[in-house]
C-alpha cells in the first residue's frame, strides 16, 4: 500500500493492487470548486485571456446549479465567491497560478474536458480526474522546438520586410542564437528585462558578424527580423482587446509588459550599436525605417506563412494543425496585399483583412479545435506593429527624423488590427447565435432561448470571444 498515490493526485491505482481503495466523497460545491480551479490553472498556463477563463468557470457553476457565484480573473489570480443564502456572508476562495504563453495542445485538451462536463458526458469527479491526467501528461514545450519556431520567425519576417534570401538565412541563425541567450539568462532566474536586453545585444553582434562575412546581409533587416517575435505586438493586441471589453486590470498588465519588453530590447540594441559602430564605421546601416514589402507578393505571403507556422510550432502545434495555421497566416497576408492593390490605404487593407480573419477564426473554432482568440493571434502575428514601436523608440534615441511617425503608425496599425479582429469575431459569433436561436424556436415552440442554457454550451461557443464582463452567473 505504500506505493499508492494520494487521493488528490488524480492517478488511478491498479485494480489488483488496491481493489478496495475509495476516493474521498466531495460535496457538489467542493467538486465544482476543485474542477473550476483545475480548469483555470490549465487555461491560464496555456495563455487564455481573463474573459474566456471567466466565462469557462461560470459555465461549470451553472452546470452544477450553484447560483450567486461571482468569478474574477486577473493577472494569474482567480477569485471565486459563492453566496448560498442572502443573509449569509459569501464564501470566497482565491487561487494563484503562473500565466503562460499559448500552448495549443493544453488549451485544446482542457476545452474538450470542459465541453464534456458542461454537456453531461462527465461528472465533476470524472472531469477532475481527466484534468489531473492532462496536467500530468502535459509537457513543457522543448527548447529545440521553440528555437526552431524562432528560426522560422527570422526567415519569415526577413522576407516580409523585403530582405534577400541571404538576409533571411542570417536572420534565422541570429534568431536562434538570440533565443538561446534569452533562455540561458532566464535559466539563472534573472528578471526578464535583462534577458531581453541580452537578446538585443546579441542580435546586433550577430547581424554585424553576418554582415562582415556575407555582404548580401542587410544589417537592419536582420536585426529587426531576429527580434520581431519579442516585440510588443501580441501584448499590445491583448491590451487593446482587454481595454475595449472592459478588463482594465489585465489591460494594464499587458501594457506594462509591452513597454518593458520594448525597453529591454531597445536597451540591448543601443548598447550593441555603440559597441559595434567603432569597429565597422559607416559600412553598416543599423537603423532603417522598415515596412512590409508589397512589391513581391509571393515572398511576402510565404514569409507570413512561415511566421504563423513558426508561432504555432513554438506554441505546441503539430501536424495538420500546424500546416493549417501557417496557410491561414499566409492567406491573411495575401488579403492585405490584395485589398491594398485595389487602391485602399494600408490601414484600410489591414482593417478589412483582420475583419475577415476574425470571422473565420470563429467559424473554424471546431475544425481547428482551438479558441478563436488563439487562432487570431497566430495568423495576425505577421501584421503586428511591434517593429514600428521599436523603430520609433530607437530612432528617437539616435535622433532620427520621423521617429515619432513610426510610433504613430504603430498605434494606428494596432487599432486597425484589434478593431478589425474583434469586429469579425463579434459578427461571426452573433450570426451563429442567431441561427441557433432560429433553430431552437422551430424545435421548441413557445420556449425562450438563452445562450447560457447548459445544453447550448460547448467548446465552440464557450471559447468564442465575449464583449462584456461576465462576473455573475
Outline the structure in words.
InterPro entries: ThrE-like_N, ThrE_2, ThrE_Dicarb/AminoAcid_Exp. GO terms for molecular function: transmembrane transporter activity. It is found in: Cell membrane. The chain is mainly α and 473 residues long. Helices cover 65% and strands 4% of the residues. It contains 18 helices and three strands. It has helices spanning 28-45, 50-63, 104-118, 124-137, 143-160, 165-187, 192-213, 219-227, 233-245, 248-280, 297-314, 319-341, 346-363, 365-368, 372-380, 386-397, 403-443, 459-462; strands spanning 69-74, 77-82, 91-96. The chain has a three-stranded antiparallel beta sheet with strand order 1-2-3, with helices on one face. β2 and β3 (91-96) form a beta hairpin. α1 (28-45) runs parallel beside α4 (124-137) and α13 runs parallel beside α17. The radius of gyration is 24 Å and the shape is globular. Mean pLDDT is 80; it is low at 1-23 and 466-473.
Write the SSE topology.
Elements: H1 28-45, H2 50-63, E1 69-74, E2 77-82, E3 91-96, H3 104-118, H4 124-137, H5 143-160, H6 165-187, H7 192-213, H8 219-227, H9 233-245, H10 248-280, H11 297-314, H12 319-341, H13 346-363, H14 365-368, H15 372-380, H16 386-397, H17 403-443, H18 459-462
Antiparallel strand pairs: 1-2, 2-3
Helix pairs in contact: 1-2, 1-4, 3-4, 5-6, 5-8, 5-11, 6-7, 6-8, 7-8, 7-10, 9-10, 9-17, 10-16, 11-12, 12-13, 12-15, 13-15, 13-17, 16-17
Amino acid at each position: 500500500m505504500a506505493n499508492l498515490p494520494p487521493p488528490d493526485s488524480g492517478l488511478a491505482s491498479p485494480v489488483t493492487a488496491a481493489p478496495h481503495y475509495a476516493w474521498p466523497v466531495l460535496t457538489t460545491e467542493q467538486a465544482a470548486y476543485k474542477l473550476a480551479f483545475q480548469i483555470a490553472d490549465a487555461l491560464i498556463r496555456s495563455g487564455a485571456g481573463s474573459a474566456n477563463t471567466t466565462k469557462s468557470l461560470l459555465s461549470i457553476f451553472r452546470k452544477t446549479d450553484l447560483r450567486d457565484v461571482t468569478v474574477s480573473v486577473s493577472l494569474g489570480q482567480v477569485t471565486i465567491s459563492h453566496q448560498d443564502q442572502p443573509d449569509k456572508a459569501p464564501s470566497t476562495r482565491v487561487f494563484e497560478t503562473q500565466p503562460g504563453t499559448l500552448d495549443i495542445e493544453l488549451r485544446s485538451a482542457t476545452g474538450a474536458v470542459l465541453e464534456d462536463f458542461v454537456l453531461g458526458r462527465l461528472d465533476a469527479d470524472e472531469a477532475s480526474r481527466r484534468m489531473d491526467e492532462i496536467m500530468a501528461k502535459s509537457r513543457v514545450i522543448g527548447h529545440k522546438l521553440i528555437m526552431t519556431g524562432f528560426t522560422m520567425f527570422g526567415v519569415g519576417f526577413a522576407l516580409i520586410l523585403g530582405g534577400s534570401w541571404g538576409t533571411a538565412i542570417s536572420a534565422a541563425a541570429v534568431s536562434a542564437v538570440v533565443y538561446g541567450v534569452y533562455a540561458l539568462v532566464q535559466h539563472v532566474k534573472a528578471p526578464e528585462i535583462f534577458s531581453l536586453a541580452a537578446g538585443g545585444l546579441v542580435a546586433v553582434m550577430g547581424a554585424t558578424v553576418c554582415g562582415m562575412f556575407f555582404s548580401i546581409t542587410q544589417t537592419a533587416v536582420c536585426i529587426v527580423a531576429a527580434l520581431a517575435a519579442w516585440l510588443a505586438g501580441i501584448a499590445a493586441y491583448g491590451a487593446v482587446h482587454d481595454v475595449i471589453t472592459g478588463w482594465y486590470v489585465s489591460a494594464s498588465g499587458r501594457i506594462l509588459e509591452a513597454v518593458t519588453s520594448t525597453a529591454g530590447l531597445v536597451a540591448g540594441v543601443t548598447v550593441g550599436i555603440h559597441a559595434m559602430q567603432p569597429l565597422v564605421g559607416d559600412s553598416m546601416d543599423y537603423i532603417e525605417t522598415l515596412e512590409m514589402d508589397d512589391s513581391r507578393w509571393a515572398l511576402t505571403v510565404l514569409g507570413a506563412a512561415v511566421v504563423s507556422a513558426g508561432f504555432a510550432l513554438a506554441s505546441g502545434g503539430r501536424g495538420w494543425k500546424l500546416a493549417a495555421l501557417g496557410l491561414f497566416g499566409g492567406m491573411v497576408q495575401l488579403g492585405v496585399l490584395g485589398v491594398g492593390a485595389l487602391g485602399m490605404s494600408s490601414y484600410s487593407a489591414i482593417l478589412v483583412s483582420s475583419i475577415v480573419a476574425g470571422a473565420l477564426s470563429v467559424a473554424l473554432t471546431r475544425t481547428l479545435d482551438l479558441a478563436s482568440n488563439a487562432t487570431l493571434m497566430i495568423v495576425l502575428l505577421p501584421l503586428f506593429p511591434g517593429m514600428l514601436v521599436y523603430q520609433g523608440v530607437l530612432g528617437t534615441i539616435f535622433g532620427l527624423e520621423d521617429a515619432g511617425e513610426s510610433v504613430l503608425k504603430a498605434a494606428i496599425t494596432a487599432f486597425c488590427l484589434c478593431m478589425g479582429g474583434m469586429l469579425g469575431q463579434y459578427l461571426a459569433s452573433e450570426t451563429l447565435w442567431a441561427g441557433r436561436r432560429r433553430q431552437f424556436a422551430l424545435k421548441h415552440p413557445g420556449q425562450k432561448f438563452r445562450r447560457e442554457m447548459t445544453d447550448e454550451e460547448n467548446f465552440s461557443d464557450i471559447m468564442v470571444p465575449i464583449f462584456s464582463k461576465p462576473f455573475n452567473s
